[in-house]
Design goal:
heterodimer; A: 302 residues; alpha+beta; Nuclear Transport Factor 2, Chain: A; B: alpha+beta; Ribosomal Protein L22, Chain A; 5 helices; 3 strands; 31% helix; transit peptide (chain A); ribonucleoprotein (chain A); mtLSU_mL45 (chain A); mitochondrion (chain A)
Chain lengths: 302, 181
């Protein structure tokens, strides 16, 4: 070929790589220069067969939780292992020591119910108060049928204690003791986002004495299984400072106190001999402006 | 927060590196410098040699997050892609869960490799002999910290004009001239 019609040149370079310059197609195959590759491709397959194939564990698959898998995936996995499908559970767990909601919630009147009774709006408000009051009195009678010496005035002292103790337990992040002062329904709402924060809270003083504004009773499942709910109005001076995981102030202040008006719902399983009054929820009226929260620059990371 | 008794214990054990994310620091007084936020993350059981991963882990150490991602996207190695994904994941977690405001205001404070499980295989040799093949895995650990990266993370000598002159002068003055006063 070297003396053929077409001039062909061979250049031997240091690596076993050849630069071939043809007459028509000129190409430099320099990328083929790799060490560690056998020069003879003839027995490549046989050399490969020397390795006994091992099934490597697929960790991304092993660490996958059942929630991430699709229905077909679970089926094929169970088939591989020869497992029978689990019987579908028709039952669903329910908690029966507290109700799941605030029933007939108290609607705090706008302007704290101080509209003039002469105006049309004020007259309507007063009428509504009266209607609700009669219902509350009936509920009070019901509570007294279980607790003979129930007195709202004495209850208010207890309610205030529960309110303060519950807050102290939130500060301590003591879930075991917290459940003595709040119901299971309120628990997730209260402890949400608390775990990695440091909360400093102080009950400074009572501005107005606490007031029972609303009483309701309801039966659940059977007629004699009765729950009682009491809404209490707290008007107090409080201090709140929330620190993030690194101890940096996120919300509130240690030195500034604020007036807080809250409507707290307390619940008790009246039919239960050992039932106690616990915080069940908080009433936030629709007309109330949204509370302040720490503002962060919004950046879409995804 | 401690789970309730009825909730039961966690089934899978957490890696110790990730428990640093649960540390809660005491509140700071108003005058103090804000403590920089940080986040630890680990990518476990990567099918890649820890020896090869080491070079990539060293490359990004002490860089800002944006710079680290930019540099890694120009490294055509399998480990670079994995490291890049891990850093990006840590960055988004920092914003979601750890009260970091700006995603670019982070730097790679720690980046290292751990040895993972090794699966042993067999290779045939001549004359009925065998050779051991090791299929290595590794873990990639990363910690991002809030703030700007340090100017000289590795404490390398600087080569600007003034410092080179200073070094030269120091060397000259410190020399010992033999048989002199």
């Amino acid at each position: 070929m070297l003396f053929g019609i077409e001039p062909i040149f061979y250049f031997q370079v240091r690596n076993p790589c050849t630069i071939y310059l043809g007459a028509e197609n000129v190409y430099f195959n320099q990328t083929r220069c790799r060490t560690g590759k056998h020069w003879e491709p003839k027995f490549k397959k046989l050399r490969g067969l020397k390795f006994i194939t091992v099934k490597l564990p697929d960790y991304s698959e092993l660490e996958k939780s059942v929630d991430e898998m699709s229905k077909d995936e679970i089926r094929t996995k169970m088939k591989e292992k020869g497992l029978l499908p689990e019987q579908p559970w028709m039952e669903s767990p329910i908690y029966i020591s507290c109700t799941g909601d605030v029933f007939e919630p108290y609607i705090p009147p706008e302007g704290d119910g101080k509209l003039s009774p002469i105006s049309a709006k004020g007259a309507k408000q007063k009428l509504e108060f009266l209607e609700k009051k009669s219902k509350s009195l009936m509920a009070l009678r019901k509570i007294r049928s279980f607790e003979e010496d129930f007195e709202p005035r004495i209850f208010l002292k207890l309610a205030e204690d529960i309110y303060i103790l519950a807050h102290n337990e939130i500060m301590k992040k003591n879930n075991k003791d917290l459940i003595r002062y709040i119901t299971e329904r309120a628990n997730p709402e209260i402890i949400h986002n608390v775990a990695d924060k440091t909360i400093h809270w102080k009950y400074l003083e009572t501005i107005e004495p606490a007031k029972v504004v609303h009483l309701r009773c309801t039966d659940v499942i059977s007629r004699d299984n009765i729950f009682g709910q009491i809404t209490v109005r707290f008007h107090s001076k409080q201090m709140l400072a929330v620190y993030d995981r690194f101890g940096r102030l996120m919300h509130g202040s240690e030195s500034i106190s604020k007036d807080v008006l809250e409507y707290i719902v307390f619940e008790k399983h009246l039919s239960n001999q050992y039932g106690v009054w616990r915080i069940h929820g908080k009433i936030i009226p629709d007309w109330m402006p949204p509370s302040e929260y720490p503002l962060n620059t919004f950046i879409d990371v995804t | 927060m401690e789970p309730l008794e009825e909730e039961g214990k966690e089934l899978t054990k957490k890696m110790r590196w990730l428990t640093y994310n649960d540390l809660i620091f005491p509140p700071q007084v108003p005058g103090e410098n804000p403590r920089p936020a940080y986040i630890c993350l680990v990518k476990e059981n990567i099918k890649y040699s820890p020896k090869k991963m080491w070079y990539i882990a060293c490359l990004v150490r002490g860089m800002s997050v944006d710079e680290a991602i930019r540099q890694l996207s120009f490294v055509s190695r399998k480990g670079a892609e994995i490291a890049k994904e891990t850093i990006k994941e840590a960055q988004s977690l920092a914003i979601q869960d750890h009260n970091v405001e700006y995603k670019s205001n982070l730097w790679v404070a720690e980046s290292f490799v751990g040895k993972g499980p090794v699966v042993h295989g067999i290779r045939r040799h001549a004359r009925m002999r065998i050779g051991k093949v090791e299929y290595k895995h590794c873990h990639y650990f990363v910690r991002l910290e809030e703030g700007k990266p340090p100017d000289n993370y590795y404490n390398r000598p600087s080569f600007d004009k003034q410092s080179m002159v200073d070094r030269w002068m120091k060397m000259i003055r410190n020399r010992k001239i033999s048989s002199s006063l």
